[in-house]
From TrEMBL:
Mg(2+) binds at E223. The lineage of its organism: Bacteria, Bacillati, Actinomycetota, Actinomycetes, Micrococcales. GO terms for cellular component: cytosol. The keyword Transmembrane helix does not apply. NCBIfam families: PRK09283.1. This is Delta-aminolevulinic acid dehydratase. Belongs to the ALAD family. Homooctamer. GO terms for biological process: heme biosynthetic process. Keywords: Heme biosynthesis, Lyase, Magnesium, Metal-binding, Porphyrin biosynthesis. It comes from the Bacteria.
Length: 318
């Protein structure tokens, strides 16, 4: 069954399609786009640059974009996140207007890009993250993001009860149609390293009091089930490549779509090795994303979404 290209094609169990790829995008304040050193080929876009990149993404036929804001000013409660003139909300409106329904405009719903301490929530007096006070902020973010044109809110903060809380806030304000993507099994991972540069994170310390312990598979599955119970429309496993076992297990039990996030460190490792000539760049990218799909992801967030979509389209024309 492997002896010819046509047999291999017929016997292939997993296929990639542009529609199931989501491109994470960073948008900064100011008129210039800025390179991200640890993620060659990825930039912090200006709003205009982001509009163009989103239009390109739509033309490539990918499924959506996930937007992250990089504000100039941060404070203890992440005020920029709920300011209608805050970078993420302005960018969301601009991009939603640009692409219409050609792709799904999604937003990161988390405070870490907006807080001066860099944590995903607000802090209690003792410096710990205050889970329930953070939920109030997430509810406010949800409403402003939905009003700005986001169709799918990416809850990446790992607060307990965040899905139920945001779902109720949306439903109570006329946003019943805004969907919720729960970063359910999000691990406290070293592979987010380059992302911290990408959003100029000010975090000192780590997120181990709210993100999952990389040692725990069962807990990842449990978090996904809890989020489904609370009304998540999609659950996610993150990072992807080192957590394919968790992904497969969540995919086996979930009755909602399961996505995976191929994170910044996964991107950086392949780019770095390929730049040295140590691995074949294109084949490594294709294999890494295919493997995430094979493990059970219905869609994949990847910084290669647009480039990969172009390869897939070109392959289909052959
Ligand atoms: C939190 C968030 C992070 C990433 C996506 N959303 C950072 C973190 O949890 O530390 C990481 C994504 C990546 O590494 O590509 N807003």
């Amino acid at each position: 069954m492997r002896s010819s290209a046509s047999l291999r094609r017929l016997a292939s169990e997993t296929r990639l399609h542009p529609a199931e790829l989501v491109l994470p995008m960073f948008v900064r304040e100011g008129r210039e786009s800025v390179d991200i050193t640890s993620m060659p080929g990825v930039v912090q876009h200006s709003i205009d640059g982001a509009r163009r990149a989103a239009a390109e993404a739509a033309a490539a036929g990918i499924g959506g974009v996930m937007l992250f804001g990089v504000p100039d000013v941060r404070d203890a409660v992440g005020s920029g996140a709920t300011d209608p003139r805050g970078i993420l909300n302005v960018a969301t409106r601009a991009i939603a207007d640009e692409v219409g329904d050609a792709l799904v405009v999604q937003t990161d719903l988390c405070l870490d890009e907006f807080t001066d301490h860099g944590h995903c929530g607000v802090l209690a007096l003792d410096g710990s993250v205050d889970n329930d006070a953070t939920l109030e902020r997430y509810n406010e973010m949800a409403l402003i993001q939905a009003a700005s044109g986001s169709r799918l809110l990416g809850l990446s903060g790992m607060m307990d009860g965040q899905v139920a809380s945001v779902r109720a806030a949306l439903d109570g304000s006329g946003f019943q149609d805004t969907a919720v993507l729960a970063y359910s099994a999000k691990y406290a991972s070293a592979f987010y390293g380059p992302f911290r540069e990408a959003v100029q994170s000010t975090l000192t310390g780590d997120r181990r009091s709210y993100q999952l312990d990389p040692a725990n598979r069962r807990e990842g599955v449990r978090e996904a089930l809890l989020d489904i119970e609370q009304g998540a429309d999609v659950v996610m496993v993150k990072p992807a490549g080192s957590y394919l076992d968790v992904l497969a297990e969540v995919a086996a039990v979930s009755d909602v779509p399961v996505w995976a996030y191929q994170v910044s460190g996964e991107y950086a490792m392949i780019e770095a090795a390929a730049a040295q000539g140590w691995i074949d760049r294109r084949r490594s990218i294709e294999e890494s994303v295919l493997s995430i799909r094979r493990a059970g992801a219905d869609a994949v967030l990847t910084y290669w979404a647009v480039e990969l979509a172009a390869w897939l389209t070109e392959g289909n024309q052959k």
